[in-house]
Amino acid sequence: AAPAPADSAKAEKIYKATCMACHGAGVLGAPKFGDKAAWGPRVAKGKPALYTNALNGFKMMPPRGGNPALKDDEVKAVVDYMIAKSN
Amino acid sequence: AAPAPADSAKAEKIYKATCMACHGAGVLGAPKFGDKAAWGPRVAKGKPALYTNALNGFKMMPPRGGNPALKDDEVKAVVDYMIAKSN
């Protein structure tokens, strides 16, 4: 389900502070925010796989998008947020 | 010591294929290739620390610069190469 409003605002803040550097423009192979074609195959892997990749790092993406201060549920919330806006 | 010529050509190839994406322009906080001011504090940490960061990933940098196929000594060679050209 899409994140609840309050969560969405929080997730958006995390997205802007940490994820947008690569996902905003879709650099270094990052699926671009809002790009349904880019996110389709990712979403098809299922959220657990995307959470794992976001937490551990994947290809050019560093663990937790390069922000080690993010808690697990914050990383998952921002993954949910990006999916909800790119799907 | 600066890498021997043959090594240097090999290291340059690795640099261009893997490292330049961030170090070429110095994006996402990466110390820009050839930028003595940016590399000074890094070099001051000593090569072992830089090798570790390059192998394990550090802040926005993914492990092995995002290329898991790189062997340890290839990662070290390209670190040496970047230092030699930025110091």
CATH superfamily of chain A: Cytochrome c-like domain
Task: Give the CATH class of chain A.
Answer: Mainly Alpha
The termini of chain A sit apart by: 12 Å
The largest interface is: A-B, 11 and 11 residues
Tertiary shape of chain A: globular
Percentage beta strand of chain A: under 5%
> Approximately how much helix is present in the residues of chain A?
55-70%
Roughly how many Å is the radius of gyration of chain A? Answer: 11 Å
Short description:
The structure is a homodimer of 87-residue chains. Chain A contains 4 helices and no strands.
Topology:
2 copies of one chain form a homodimer.
Chain A: H1 5-23, H2 36-44, H3 47-56, H4 72-84
Descriptive keywords:
homodimer, 87 residues, mainly alpha, Cytochrome Bc1 Complex, Chain D, domain 2, 0% strand
Textual characterization of the structure:
The structure is a homodimer. The model of chain A has no long low-confidence stretch (mean pLDDT about 95). The first copy, chain A, starts with a helix and ends with a helix. Chain A has a single domain, classed as Cytochrome c-like domain (Cytochrome Bc1 Complex, Chain D, domain 2). The first copy, chain A, has helices at about 5-25, 35-45, 45-55, 70-85. The radius of gyration of chain A is 11 Å and the shape is globular. Helices cover about 60% and strands about 0% of the residues of chain A. The longest helix of chain A is centred in the first third of the chain and has 19 residues, at about 5-25. By secondary structure, chain A is an all-alpha fold. Chain A contains 4 helices and no strands. The interface of A and B includes residues 22, 28 and 63 of A.
